[in-house]
Amino acid sequence: MRGKNSNKIAVILLVFSFIILFLVLIHLPYDLKGKEKVVVIIRRGMGVKEIAETLSKSELINSKTLFLLVSLFYGRRFIAGEYEFSRNMSTIHIMRMMKKGERKIYLVKIIEGSSLADVASSLEKNLVMKKEEFLKLARDREFLNMLNIPSDSIEGYLAPDTYYYSREISLNDLFAKIVNRTFRYFENEKMRRRMAELGFDVHKTLTLASLIEKEAKLEKEKPLISAVFHNRLRYGMPLECDPTVLYGTERTGPITKEDLKRKTDYNTYTFKGLPPGPICNPSESSIRAALFPADVDYLYFVSRNDGSHVFSRSLREHTKYVKLYQRRNSNSTN
C-alpha cells in the first residue's frame, strides 16, 4: 500500500516538475539583455513550422519544438504581418503578439489630385518605400502590362483613399489592388454605356478626369469645366489646360509665357486633343464629370482667384474677364 502511494506521489511530482519546467521555458527569453529590435515578416500562408524556423533563425526563440507545442494552445493560427520583436521577449510574449496581430501598420494615402511624385514623397515620408523604388515600380513595363494599363505609368490609376498596409503582402500586390479598385469603378453598366457613347475608354476617361480634377476647386464646377473640354474637343480646339503644361515641365506654378511655348507631350496649348495620359489621380466625382458634362456651350473659363471660375462662350468675352481678374490679382498683390 505504502509502495503504491509512493509511486503516485512520484508521478505527481514528475508531472508537476514538467509543468514548472514548461512554464519556465515558455517565459524564458532568448537573451535577457537583448533589447534591440528584430524585424520579422510573417507572410500570408506561412505554416507554424515555417514561422518557428523563421523565429529560430532570427534568434528569438530557444526551441522550435517548444514553439510548436505551445502553438497548439493558440490553435496554430497567427496573424501575418511585419513584427518588431526583441530577444528579451519570451516565447509566450511573441506568440501573444502574433495572435493579437500587434504588427506594424503603414499609412498609404492617395490624395485626390495627387501625382505620382506626390504619392512617392508621401510613401517615403510614411516609411513605406523609397521614392525611387515607387517611381521605378510605377513605370515598370511588365507591371503595367500585368495590370492592363495602356500607358507609361500608373499615373491616374491609383484610386484616392487612405489605405493601411502591412508587409505580409508585397508592395506590388498592394498597388495592384489599388489599381484594380479603379477598374472596378468602371464595371458599372451605366459608366460603360456612357463611355461607349462618347467613344471613350478607361484611359481617356481618367485622362480627362485628371484635367478636371486639377482645374476645379469647387465640386459644382466640375461638370462645367468638363463641358468646356468636351466642347473644345468637339470643335477641334486645343484644350489649353494650364496644369498639363506644368505637368510636362515637371514643376509647380506659377505658369510662365515660356512654359506655354515649350513643346512637351503634355502641353495642351501646342496640340489638339487629350494629352497621352492622366496628370494626377482623379476623384470619383471628377470621373463622373468627365463622362457627364453639363449641357452648356462654354468654350473658355478663367479663375476669379477665389477658387471659382467665370465661364464664357466667346474669345472676346473670355479676354475681357482675363484682363479683369488679372488686374484684380495684380492689385491685390501690390
Could you walk me through the main structural features you see in this protein, from its secondary elements to its overall organization?
This protein is mostly helical and 334 residues long. The protein has helices at residues 2-26, 48-57, 64-71, 91-100, 116-125, 131-138, 141-146, 171-185, 189-198, 202-215, 222-234, 242-249, 257-261, 284-291, 315-333, and strands at 37-42, 81-86, 106-110, 161-165, 300-303, 309-312. It folds into four domains: 15-100, 2-Layer Sandwich (Dna Ligase, domain 1), CATH 3.30.1490; 106-185, no CATH class; 199-297, no CATH class; 299-334. It contains 15 helices and six strands. The strands form three sheets. It has a two-stranded antiparallel sheet with strand order 1-2. A two-stranded antiparallel ribbon has the order 3-4. Strands 5-6 form a two-stranded antiparallel sheet. The termini are far apart.
Task: Give a short overview.
By secondary structure, the protein is mainly alpha-helical. The chain has helices at residues 2-26, 48-57, 64-71, 91-100, 116-125, 131-138, 141-146, 171-185, 189-198, 202-215, 222-234, 242-249, 257-261, 284-291, 315-333; strands spanning 37-42, 81-86, 106-110, 161-165, 300-303, 309-312.
Instruction: Label the overall shape.
Output: elongated
Secondary structure: helix percent? 40-55%
**What strand line-up does the widest sheet have?**
1-2
Main beta sheet strand tally, sense and closure: 2 strands, antiparallel
Low-pLDDT stretches:
330-334
* Mean pLDDT reading: 89
- What is the radius of gyration? 30 Å
- Distance between termini? 110 Å
Number of domains: 4
Topology, number of strands: 6
Find the structural class using helix and strand composition.
mainly alpha
Residue fraction in strands: 5-15%
Total helices: the number is: 15
- What is the chain-wise order of helices and strands? HEHHEHEHHHEHHHHHHHEEH
